[in-house]
Amino acid sequence: MDPFGRFLADLIPLFNDMPAWLAITITGLIAGTLLLVFMAVFALFAVYLERKVSAHMQDRLGPMEVGGWHGWAQTIADAVKLLAKEDLIPKNVDRILFKAAPMLVFGATTAAFGALPFSADLIPADMNIGLLYILAVSSLVVIGILMAGWSSNNKWSLYGAMRAAAQIVSYEIPIALSLLVAVVIVGSLNMSDLVRFQDGTIFDWIFLKYYGLGFIAFIIYFVASLAEVNRTPFDLPEAESELVAGFHTEYSGMRFAMFFLAEYANMFLVAAIATSVFLGGWLPPFPVLDFIPGAVWFVGKSLFLVFIQMWLRWTLPRLRVDQLMYTCWKVLTPFSFAVLMIVATLIII
Amino acid sequence: MAQYFRNIYETIATVLIGMGVTFRHLFTKSVTLQYPREQRELPSGTRQKLFVNIDDCIGCLQCEKACPVSCITIETIKAEKDEDLGETSNGKKKRMYLTRFDIDMAKCCYCADCVFPCPTECIYMVPEFDFATYDRNDLVFRFSNLSDEKHKELIEREKAKEAAKQQPPEAN
Amino acid sequence: MPDLRTEVMEVNMGPQHPSTHGVLRVVLKTDGEIVLDAIPYIGYLHRCFEKHAENVTWQQVIPFTDRMDYLASMNNNFGYVVGVEKLMGIEVNERVERLRVITAELNRIASHLIALGTYGLDIGAFTPFLYAFREREMILDLFEEICGARLLYNFMWVGGVSHDAPDGWIQKVLDFCDYFSPKIKEYNDLLSFNKIFIERTANVGVLPADVAISYGCSGPTLRASGVDFDLRKNDPYSIYDKFDFNTVIGEGLKGTVGDCWDRYWVRIIEMEESVKIIRQAASDMPDGNVKEKIPKIVKVPAGEIYQRTETPRGELGYYIVSSGDKIPERIKVRSPAFCNLSVLPAISRGIMVADIVAIIGSLDIVLGEIDR
Q1: What distance in Å separates residue A342's CA from the closest CA in chain B?
Q2: Domain that holds residue C211
Q3: Dihedral sign (CA B140, B144, B147, B152)
Q4: Does A156 touch chain C (CB under 8 A)?
Q5: pLDDT tens digit string along A24-33?
Q6: For chain C, how many structural domains are there in total?
């Protein structure tokens, strides 16, 4: 049984009396619901954070009215507005693909969340190929984006979709290679094994191991993950000043909200992968701080990375398509490959 | 090859410099005002809404002529010789009844060309800027302060005069 | 299996598009991301300035000149009043000239700030835009204090200026200069020398000097191509010949002479030069009545004149024909942004869609002026 199942069984003894199939189904349902709630809450919070971070970096204040204290309810109001909007589908779109695309994007992201190790007990699905599963499932996003861009029957959307496809598929490679560095060090694809390996102090975390090579791998992963989630400086698929809104130009209301939610959930996803693979997951930097629950550390570290993603977005301009490819194939991929080779050699020696 | 590594170095360095700038701004005080609650003090000569001090107007139509977009409409009726309409605050004698003094702020281009020619300085701009409405007709500001009865009476009188002019009194 | 083939895709960029700086429509013929041809279509913001000018008095034309290049209204007023004054033979006093130069240069800074900020937006950096607007807001505050308006000033009149500077205004201008100069470093740190920004703009949209001249480009667009031509120096009007400043020409610091980065950089340095001019003009300001030469009714003797001045966008020319009447016979405007935009098809063949955005941004067009 999964750690999460065991955790639930400890909490509610009733589970032990149930037949296994029922217990697993119920745990799955509970985990799924919790994850969806977490994603929604996180997306709302991240949008709020993004607005506040951008505002203060630009000497503004951001939303200040809705809800009273510093406009905390602004994103909730926005979400309600988006959900209450008329469901518009342009006339000449491919209706099936158009409707399916946001669901696929959202679904892929949610599925990937399932294998995240929030803490030692809170792993909805602790599988032995956890990392591979996350990478594989989150790649489905690109199909959803392609579907959205293609079905919209809009030239700008098509541009956005094509760019997204080329970009995300390319950046999978440096992402995988840099994550492999950690996998080679640990010798497991299991997410909780990856984290447990880094037990100890901050100096046992992988990003500080192997004479800075871990750090380089971490940076490569972080940069490539920015491209994976279409954030500046790699936000070409939705480059506002070039492609109007990219692949979601024709979307509005609820469907747009799903893209938006998925985008922010994806930001958390890549940050969470970086956290658990390179930054010690739910472990505190020093054992003294053990009294703080693991989930807090995990979410805190991930949020810090999300903050850096935002920080970069409000600082940097955007790359061009050919430069994007240059960065991927001529900089990130060779470097991550070299790091992987060196680390592998060091381990063998 | 050296260029390749220099490019990477430059990219990282300049990105970090830029991040430093934005990070410093994260903690500086914001420069914006929370508008409806905080408002900045407008300077004395600010050009916002047109206002006419109708008591001082002598009906010379200078402002109407100066307006490049014809947003001012004035109609006047001459006073009789024995009627005393009083004086303006700078001592000019008023000789006209102002039956109509309308300013269409929807048309106004805020150039203040009407303000300068006024001999009695009775048309000027006041620092009031939030007068948006749902109906464009609400932006027509009527400044004439004649009562309806007086207005009617004056028009009757004018009509009578016209009639008198057109039909010369019968001889004898 | 049938032969695979590709098709040229025609994309309508605009009239509603985030980075066409107004209602410009560019028809792009593209092969994937490569632009084969870009044809600008204008006329979506045509407001009949020239026809209006034939129906209102000489003084009433000035509010209409405001509305051509709405980002640099002072400079637009300037050219018109200088031209009319020359026709009428009016010499204005030193204080008026200085006030005009100060406001025109302040407006040049404000306009370049917008060019800089929106260029950042075009390239994808949001924050410089807000920083530029922060400084621009201060300039607008100064303008509001002197003439009451923040965007469309109607400040320079035939024979003078509409308002004298209030007490302490000159000091505030000097304070602004002190505040502003260090801020340029911030823009440089954040945007100008950012490697990604340089990669996006250097060697992109290279405009060779001969092409620039043959298309009639002017202003920063022309100077970035290495042509030393600034009407404030080459055909001085008002009292620009009294001030010590440099014309800025593109040197190809990060790429080729005349690329987008040069056009951007020329504007940055030009702001510094404008600060220099303002400092000189604002020091020991002479006294004088700013309205002493304003005629009651502007009546221009019959004749014609072509008056050109240097606006932030380049050579703004007014061809003024008077028949001796109270209203102008004809006013033709040679607008700099129009000529600068005309060069777009020439330098945008075989580049990428993202580069089109970079080029349009670097030309710094204002559609109000192109369509008039």
Answers
A1: 19
A2: 9-371
A3: negative
A4: yes
A5: 787 778 878 8
A6: 1
